[in-house]
């Protein structure tokens, strides 16, 4: 890349961006706000509110109970839409259900039950908290691989943790803090060689990087839809089960939506065939419609083009950070090679908490993450190169000017 | 009651109904449709769509990630609204979370863990299928009390099933098919005497009958919000844990929203104090707003007045059924005393399936339930006495005329 630090360069990058027009697919009520947090909560697609209005008014309000004749299909329809357009899964391998955490619980429990005599789950000490907590609550024994919080999981370390006691390897595909990408195909193959199953959390990679789930032979996966999938706060999660594996597994929350014949209401729980057995209760109808709208925009943009733009945006961000922010005490806390990270980048600074507060006041929204990290997520569907330029320039100026010093140091609890 | 079978009498009952005006709080896009299925899916309150529009456009769209500073309170706020206005619970005893089935799983597992050495769960063979399935998947042993499907659970039969092996008694407060009400305070007291906990499914009683949870000493409860609470298809469920019990219990799905300090993201799961420890993943923001709107209407109507009208509506329905439908082969499949049933009534008829199809075509929406039952739910917030009159008259005429004979007998699977 060139060392041109002018804003004109950012403008030229935007002019050459094949996805530039997709910004108009999202509501941008404050054009001056720089939003680098689509990896926490994606923006609102312009089609979502009209779709929800129609669903509420014309479906719930008018069809009433009769709406279930088509709502009943939503979990699977939207699951297939996510799976085939973003995850590299086959139809029938993905469904929409519950929250990411509940799905992780169901699939991890199913995996443990499918490997009797093996009681160990392998995960890493930098995995997202809810993943670690769920596994700790479920598995007879959790074997923690140490991961560098900036550089991600080393495949060799996971391999060293595998033996005949391991039932399941459960990792995040893309680290929530550093954005480092784990070697999903390599670790999956190694786990299979050791007789273990794999369960991937795709929350930060779904919609930001191609995943190739089916091609990798991955067994199980879960992910959220409120980040890159732009489905709104608290939107329902998805789960993936490899097609040939589904009928071998039993999940522990035996709900009526997971039965073979739901309205027979018979005495015994008989699990449905295939992916449907991983459903539990009444599906979230309006949430499913919001997911469908969010995913439709990404599908049209194309996951390969989103990935390309994501790498270009983060590379540009890292270049500006190296030049402008490193002299101010910042350090890159993500992999330096674009291929090894997703669409967000972390920067370490001892005063990251205060800087994050000052940034918010300066109209730049990003995340603080413990310990002492700014997490900057230029979601490729709607973030411009000029947004990255303006954000980094403003961060430089406010830290150089000491604007963040006005904010008190805070405990690590933020919302 | 009088034996006046004129429509004028129904009109007079509507004129004297203190809740008559509440019908205008709901969208009624097809005024000629008679909807007797609010016990399956409640109607759309007129304030819900504007509230959702504001939440989507002005909160998600504009506040973006900053919205979490207030969204984070929603589970508890709306839980308290449900608990204090409809369930007779104290603030801090109810929260909004997941689906009814997932909540049932969490609380049943927590109860079993709190009674080590006892592995028996008592439930009844007429309990709602998802309840029976969840318990069968969790408990070392399920002890099934036989219940008359028309007359409900006999307290004496539950008492006879109690002994020192019982960890938990888990029942529906109000039977999904017959509408029979279980003796919640009596069974709770008996369970406590035997050293067991109680877990009540309030899905059909929440918003239709007063419950008095706290006064009864009930330990645990769950319920849905898409029936009488009018929160829409797939809306989030609630759970109740008695205040002094919460900190003694541990639920199995250890998610980040149930931890003491969520964004510390520390190595170990430390459960939050009180009701919050029963949360799991990201709460359903828009679903919570829909629940708040649905419950606000009921709270204004008042649960005692709703109960009074519910008894009057079902009594009127039973009276007309006795007179008009019994000669056509119908039999009441619900308790005959209004005090012993909720706001829905079941009628048995050998051709109930075909009759239900013919009713739909005749503009009357009700449920078919196995075996051979019509379930008629005149939800008190928006159902008029003339709706009951017109429905029963039309059912009489179509069955007398053989209109249902045109429909083929169907397997018991309906949606």
What is the structural class of chain A? alpha/beta
Uncertain runs of chain A: none
* Shape, principal axes of CA atoms of chain A: globular
- In the CATH scheme, the class of the largest domain in chain A would be Alpha Beta
Distance between the termini of chain A: 37 Å
* Protein chain pair with the most extensive contact, residues per chain: A-B, 85 and 85 residues
Number of strands of chain A: 13
The biggest beta sheet of chain A is recorded as:
7 strands, mixed
Number of domains of chain A: 2
CATH architecture of the largest domain in chain A: 3-Layer(aba) Sandwich
Q: What is Rg of chain A?
A: 22 Å
* Residues in β-strands, percent of chain A: 5-15%
Question: Averaged pLDDT of chain A, please?
Answer: 96
Topology pattern of chain A, helix = H, strand = E: HEHHHEHEHEHEHEHEEHHEEHEEEH
How would you name the oligomeric state of the polypeptide chains in this document?
homodimer
In the sheet with the most strands of chain A, the strands line up as 2-8-7-6-5-3-4
Note the total helix count of chain A: 13
CATH homologous superfamily label of the largest domain in chain A: Type I PLP-dependent aspartate aminotransferase-like (Major domain)
CATH topology of the largest domain in chain A: Aspartate Aminotransferase, domain 2
Helix content of chain A: 25-40%
């Amino acid at each position: 890349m060139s060392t041109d630090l002018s804003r004109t360069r950012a403008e030229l990058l935007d002019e050459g961006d094949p996805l530039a027009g997709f910004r108009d697919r999202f509501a941008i009520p404050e054009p001056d706000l720089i939003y680098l947090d689509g990896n926490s909560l994606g923006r609102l697609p312009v089609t979502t509110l009209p779709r929800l209005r129609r669903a509420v008014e014309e479906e719930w309000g008018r069809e009433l109970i009769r709406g279930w004749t088509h709502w009943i299909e939503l979990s699977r329809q939207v699951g297939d839409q996510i799976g085939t357009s973003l995850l590299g899964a086959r139809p029938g391998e993905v469904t929409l259900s519950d929250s990411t955490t509940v799905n992780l619980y169901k699939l991890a429990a199913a995996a443990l039950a499918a490997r009797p005599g093996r009681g160990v789950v392998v995960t890493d000490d930098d995995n997202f908290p809810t993943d670690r907590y769920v596994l700790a609550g479920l598995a007879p024994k959790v074997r923690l691989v140490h991961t560098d919080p900036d550089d991600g999981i080393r495949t060799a370390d996971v391999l060293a943790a595998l033996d005949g006691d391991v039932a399941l390897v459960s990792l995040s595909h893309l680290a929530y803090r550093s954005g480092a990408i784990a070697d999903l195909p390599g670790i999956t193959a190694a786990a299979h060689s050791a007789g273990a199953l794999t369960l991937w959390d795709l929350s930060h990679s779904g919609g930001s990087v191609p995943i190739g789930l089916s091609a990798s032979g991955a067994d199980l996966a879960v992910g959220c839809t409120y980040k890159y999938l732009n489905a709104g706060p608290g939107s329902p999660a998805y789960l993936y089960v490899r097609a040939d594996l589904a009928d071998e597994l039993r999940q522990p929350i035996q709900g009526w939506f997971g039965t073979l014949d739901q309205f027979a209401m018979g005495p015994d729980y008989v699990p449905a065939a295939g992916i449907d057995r991983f459903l539990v209760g009444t599906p979230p109808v309006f949430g499913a419609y919001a997911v469908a709208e969010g995913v439709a925009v990404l599908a049209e943009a194309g996951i390969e083009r989103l990935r390309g733009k994501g790498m270009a945006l983060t590379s540009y961000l890292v270049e500006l950070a190296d030049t402008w922010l490193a002299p101010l005490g910042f350090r890159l806390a993500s992999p330096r090679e674009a291929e090894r990270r997703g669409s967000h980048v972390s920067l370490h600074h001892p005063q990251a908490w205060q800087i994050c507060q000052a940034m918010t006041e300066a109209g730049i929204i990003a995340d603080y993450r413990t310990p002492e990290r700014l997490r900057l997520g230029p979601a490729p569907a709607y973030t411009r190169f000029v947004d990255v330029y303006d954000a980094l320039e403003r961060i430089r100026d406010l830290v150089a000017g000491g604007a963040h010093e006005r904010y008190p140091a805070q405990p690590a609890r933020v919302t």
